[in-house]
Amino acid sequence: MSEKIHNIGIMAHVDSGKTTLTEQLLYLSGSIRQIGSVDEGTASTDNMSIEKQRGISVRSAAASIKWKDNKINIIDTPGHVDFAGEVERALSALDYAVVIVSAVEGVRAHTENILKSLDSAKIPRLVFINKIDRAGADTASVLKELKALSDTAYIEMNRPLNSGNENASIASFSDDEFSAHATEILADINEQAEEEFLNENILNIDDVKTIIRKEILNCKLSPILYGSAKHGIGVKELADVITEYMPSAEHKATDGLCGIIYKIEHDKQNGKISHIRLFGGEISNRDEVILVTADNSKSAVSENDAVDEEKKPDTKEKVSQIKTYNGAKLADSGFVHGGDIAALCGLPSAKAGSFIGSLVQGTASKLVYPFLRVRVSPADGDERKLPELAGALSQLSDEEPYIDAKWENGQKEITISTTGKIQLEVLENLLKERYSLDASFSAPTVIYKETPSKAGLARASYTMPKPCWAVVEFKFEPMPRGYGVSYHGRLPSNQCFYRYQSHIRTSFNTCLEQGLYGWEVTDFKCTLIGGEHHTIHTHPLDFFVCTPMAFMNGLQETGSTILEPLLKIRITAPAELSGKLLSEIVKMGGEYDSPVTHSQTVSLEAVVPVATSMDFPTRLAVISSGKAVLNQTFYGYRECCDSLEHVNPRRGVNPLDRSKWILWARGAYTTE
Description:
Elements: E1 4-11, H1 18-28, H2 49-54, E2 61-67, E3 70-76, H3 84-91, E4 96-102, H4 109-121, E5 125-130, H5 139-149, E6 153-156, E7 159-161, E8 169-171, H6 175-186, H7 191-198, H8 205-217, E9 221-226, H9 235-245, E10 258-267, E11 271-280, E12 282-284, E13 288-292, E14 315-318, E15 321-326, E16 329-332, E17 335-337, E18 341-345, E19 355-356, E20 372-378, H10 386-399, E21 414-418, H11 421-435, E22 439-441, E23 445-446, E24 449-452, E25 456-462, E26 470-478, E27 485-488, H12 498-511, E28 520-521, E29 524-533, H13 542-558, E30 560-574, H14 578-587, E31 591-592, E32 596-598, E33 601-609, H15 610-613, H16 616-624, E34 629-639, H17 658-665
Parallel strand pairs: 1-3, 1-4, 4-5, 5-9, 6-9, 24-28, 27-29
Antiparallel strand pairs: 2-3, 7-8, 10-11, 10-19, 11-18, 12-17, 13-14, 13-19, 15-16, 15-18, 20-21, 20-22, 20-23, 24-30, 25-26, 26-29, 30-33, 30-34, 31-33, 32-33
């Protein structure tokens, strides 16, 4: 590889300056002649019309620059929490992240989640403290916040001067100053530096640089730079630190063909476009590649565990065209080699999160937890448009899997998951602009879950009408909140062939989508304790008919407990509002920690149900006259405390209706 490649993600809370910093890097490298403006809708990486209208990024966008014999691929990610799925997928394509923190607002909720996810995935990061020219900038306070959030050590690579006013600037360290500064910081994380520091020596500059590179790669150290993206302050220094200290793509190189599709787009001219980070190998135009999903790459189960799901055959598809980035624009290249990112045309089965060649090991923690569901229908009520609308939403689900559009023929509406109102505005705009479809969206409703209320058996026997023969028996055991679902149990092959046990497990995983009340079933342990086939009468699909009946019989036996989603909220407000805020939290059925008062302000944290807090941001703005700051993050699920019945309409036929289910499963009955 003649040049070093860096794949970086620029990440932060909304309005922290991500896109502006990207513009400055493009301008610095000579990739663009004029710096675009987010507010004016002229930023190079804001290509969607709604991005230009609203002045925010809603999709990740890529660009590429050259700096000091290095190629830097930049993925500019959205900052609004509604589009955190874009950030989550981008993490898998990065060598490291550039996290932007405002010197005025400090570490906001979404940035905190990003930092935690980077820690979890062991992805190095560099922090750029932006807006040092703004009134109220407090760089010392921001640095203190960052240190409190992580065990990672931070090392300042420049110094802010006159921060908090328009005359702000930065100063560089001399080699001697930096060596002394670095030796003290590194002594806490590196044995060589510790020894020199204890002996009252200072590392030489070459050793300092070597150790910094090593500990950044080990995620023990994060560089910090100060600047102002708006005025280009600190941007050159950032580019220099990236090329001199941060790990390049070769640190994640693989021997064989291996890559991840981190983004899907649809284009009228080129069709589906798959944006890929290639870790190893090379792809050229007209090459046939294997698409791999995480489900297809599960390791073999142990002898005492369960028979694994049936592996689907690999999907092989041909790449028709390859484009790579030149500045903020894609240009035909004909090939992409390991370490680089590119856009591939001609992979109709590709989805965001798919792998090419082989599975990429290591994933980041989740940033997105959609807990709201919306019903979508044609705006004019014409049911004949439902299939076309469902097809459009299915295509948009390829781009953003968390939308999770669901529709069964015969239903009069489609349901989608959403993270907030702005995401719905974007979907409405995309449906109209790209597909010429006007859609109507219902008010969001809460996505509940359910779990078995007690331990019990789940059994079904499918032996009539012939030819058929399948018997399935499970044991369900409730588990603590947040456990998820585990599957166990392996029967002797002469009792139930392993291939049929594989069918049972595959069908079981599908059954989890809809429980007794129509919600996803979670937090329990399932063990296959009985099963039976017949060497003459059993048809290969019989266990796909029998397993859902056993599953639903089991839930009817154990009963289902409804679980509701919770939010963790953090409020900073004028101290005199403390009593009103606590009263609001109690009304919502929330639980709170003791408020902490600082001078004229009060800070408090609480956990509240999503269902009762959906309009809380609006109420808080009224109560505080807009002076309160609210941060919200997903907290988890708990047993529902209200006395209401929460039922989600079932898609398709309920297996508890045995006769109708068997007819439907055998293709003799339709719901239309």
